[in-house]
Fold this sequence. Notes:
Helix content is about 70%, strand content about 0%. It has two helices and no strands.
Amino acid sequence: MKTTKSTFDEAELELLKEGLKRTYKERFEMATRLYKIQQTMNKASVVHKPFIAK
């Protein structure tokens, strides 16, 4: 169990290090993309419709 936790921590650090290598423009574009996705998900509503309508 501890190995998976350390693996996740290492992966997270790797992502942070990779993020620091990006330019400000790339960071801005990524943040904008995530913000747009968040806005879309907040407005979304799940509606269930039966597969076969009788």
